[in-house]
Amino acid sequence: MVRTKVEIKRIEDKAKRHTTFTKRRQGLFKKAKELVKRCDAQAAVITFSLAGNIFAFGHPSVDSVVNRYTAAPEQDEEAEKKGEDGVVDEETKEDEETGMFEVPVKDMDMEELEKLNVAMKEMKKKVVDRINGIVSSSKNEEDLGLP
What we know:
The protein is mostly helical and 147 residues long.
């Protein structure tokens, strides 16, 4: 039996589009689950339906994978700061962009922990606002009949 190549284009019929979204979402989550099992990987998949519903799969959890992803640029910067011997300089430098110090949480005093807590709450609010913006723009595009 030979598979025919399906042209990837927008599905105009709303009911068919919803059915296809549901089936493909389930398939995507199944593939992510398989990747996690076979390769001992951490993965997160987040999808938004046209109705604005959020569907997510994550291992070990979506939050832990997203937190690790958002921390990745910080890890890259730390790797760049390492010298040839692979050791980070002992100096504590303030990050100009965030105003936070590059100190392990266990070494922070109460004032620094409170600043970190406020910064994390602000970041969470920005992420939620961004998600809401994406959802509302996708709804507006649907209302206008845009692909």
